[in-house]
Each structure stands twice: as structure tokens, then as C-alpha cells.
């Protein structure tokens, strides 16, 4: 990182404030569009499989670009990266806001994502180098407040906007805010970067793009195309082989684009495994609860957003508190307690019925999000704390990449598990009917089989979370390791 930040005894609060405002609107954008998808489908004349690319492409671009951020953070100043990221995000927002055709909207969304992909690792890296280990939990807790609160209010706010205005207002509302943040960054960020002689390895970028992009595309498409589709298993195989080649190439480069030596540090490796496993399971709640509420219980999208809002806000505002507790007690106890809560609440969600009340859903979801708030930040911060400062860009890039990949894999697996169980139950219930089932009976079979599929997916999620709970008992409080002169042969202390 640049010297102006490294050698400053007082954290650069002005830089952090500008970065956090920029990060807030980019994070908000990640969930802002979901509620508007039906309106976009109707106006632009596209089907569900096509409109989903507005979300899938955002994930793909993040998965492709985030691995390159370790190189970018080492090569360029915070000011330059921030201005580039916000410029791309603002440009994408303007394009999407005036899109009259779906391809134009998709291009705008992808340009937005290219700016967002740079923002999160950049902010995390600045925070790591700006605060000592003893205060880092509190600092990362404030960062978590931004990270969690923005996506939390996204669905509810966008639901209100779409109900009263055209869906383009979602982009028009963000555009002036993004422009103001860009102007603030231009005048307030003054840090400079000493010239760094780092070679840009284009072939590594190509391998990373094909590897992470192939995996994300394959797993994201499995829910709609099915695992038997050549487009699904073909891209997953190509992505896995490219990723293996990418990893092998990084071990041979003198200065790797993404340094996999971070996994030599046991607490970072353990944190990565826990968060990957947990991310795969947690997506069950984000996907299945809205499906259950709207399809089984008949709750409107706006009411569903309001039902999930208390949990999301609780998760966000617990983040600074969890950060302070982490600084005082470490991450092990917090993680174990949080994972116990997440396990119990996820198991409770595997027993949903046609009579489960709105209030019960709200309380269970809020409790589950409370448990999450005790896990994610302590685990990841404890892992990053063991890395030497030279590895911070690689650690943050690796964390964010793994989050994208595990989220996509978890989404695909849980949708497949739910769909297979649903199909099996539907066939079983239909076979039990004597004679020709009426339309009313068929509708009841559809609902009962869907409920069974959702419950089974939550049950599988519970067992996945238990794996993270067991691993959490091995967490030890970590401090930064000292790196030797040759970073390629460093050993963790």
C-alpha cells in the first residue's frame, strides 16, 4: 500500500469516509434491481431466463475482476483506483437508466459491476493497513455496517420505488449520488503512489477470467438449464481446468497476480474454508424464504421485503458491536455462538408449514441474521490478521473471490436440491390420488411438493452449517506474521 497511509500514525479518516460512501451505493446496487425484474420483463419483452442475466452478469463480472484487484492495489494509488471505480459505476448507472432495449440495460449493469468489483477490495485493504490489529475488529465492524446495511434496505426501498415510479428511477436516483461521490473523491483524495515495477501478466488475467467466469457461469446456470446441460457441465469443467492452470502459473511467477501463498497461514486458510462452507448454506435463506412467503403463503413482494428488513438491519447494526467484542475476546467464542444460532434457526426453517405465521418468519429470520453477524466479520478478520501486510491485497482479493464463487455454487446446489425433492414429492402425491386429479387437487400437490422441497433444502443447509460449527472450534487468535525477504518462500510464524 502507499506510504501516505502506511506511515500515518492517525488513520486516514477522510479517505475512509469517501471510500465508505462510494462503497455504500455500490453495495446498495447489488440488491436494488431484484424487485424490479418483473417490471423489466414486461416492458422490455424478455423471459425469466433472460432477465436473470442482470443478476448473473453482475456476479460474473465481480468474479472475473476481483482476482485482479490485488495487482491493481499494489500498482496504483487509492485515489486513482477509486476514481476509476466510481467513474465506471456512474457510467454504467447512466447507461442503464436510459436503456430502451434489454442488451443496453445488460451492458450498463456490467459496466456498473466492473466499478463495484474494485471498490470492496480497495476499501478492505485501506482499512487493514490503516488500523493496528488491536483496533481492527472495531474498524471492520463499521465496514460491516456499510456492507450489510446497504443490501439490507435495497429490496424494500426498490420495492417502494417500483410501486410508485418507473423501474428506471432506480438508476436515476443513484446517478446524482454517484456523481457527487466521484467529485468528492477527485478533490479530497490526495494520496500518491511511488512508482512500482510490477509486470502485468496478461495470460494470468485470461486464465483467471476463464476459470472464475466459467465456474460462476456454470453453477449459476445449473438452476435453470439443469446439471445435464452441456453448457453447464462444459463451462464448469473448462473453468476448473483453467483455474488449476491459473494457480500453477501463480506459483511459478516471481510476482504473482494473486498470491496463493496466503494459504500457508493456517488461520487464513481455516477462515476461508469456514466462510466458503457457510456462504453455500446461507444462500438458502436469501433465496428460499421469499419463494416460500410469496408462493406458499401468498405474501406480496413488498410485505416480504418488510418481513426480512428487521433481520437485515439487526445484522447491520450488530456489526460494530461484534467488532468491539472481537477486539476484546477474539473470534472463536463469537463464531461458535453465532454458528449455534444459525444452525438452530436454519433447522427451524426446515419445519415450515402452510400455517407458519408472518411474525414467526420475521423472528426466525432476524435471529438467523443475528447469528450471522457474530460469524462473518470475526472469522474473516481473524484470518486476515495473520497475514503479513504485504499479503493484504492478495488476502482481501482471495476472500472476495471465494465469496462470489461459493455463493454461486451454494445457490445452484440448493435450487437443484429443492427442485429434485419437489419433483419427487409431486410424483409421489400424484400417484396417491385415485382417479383423475381435479385442478384444485393439482394446485394443492404443487404447493405441498414445493413446501417439501423448501424444507428439505433448509435441512441440507443445516448439515452444511454444522461443518462450519465444528471447524470454528479450531480458531485461534492470530497476529500478523513476519515475511522474509523473498515473499515466495515465506513461512508463517
TrEMBL record:
SUPFAM superfamilies: MFS general substrate transporter (SSF103473). One of its GO terms (molecular function) is transmembrane transporter activity. Coiled coil: none annotated. Gene3D superfamilies: MFS general substrate transporter like domains, Multidrug resistance protein D. GO terms for cellular component: plasma membrane. Residues 15-480 form the Major facilitator superfamily (MFS) profile domain. It holds the Pfam family MFS_1. It is a multi-pass membrane protein. Keywords: Cell membrane, Membrane, Transmembrane, Transmembrane helix, Transport. It is found in: Cell membrane. The chain crosses the membrane at residues 12-33, 53-74, 81-107, 113-134, 141-161, 167-188, 200-219, 231-248, 268-293, 299-317, 329-349, 456-475. Belongs to the major facilitator superfamily. EmrB family. This is MFS transporter. It comes from Oceanobacillus arenosus.
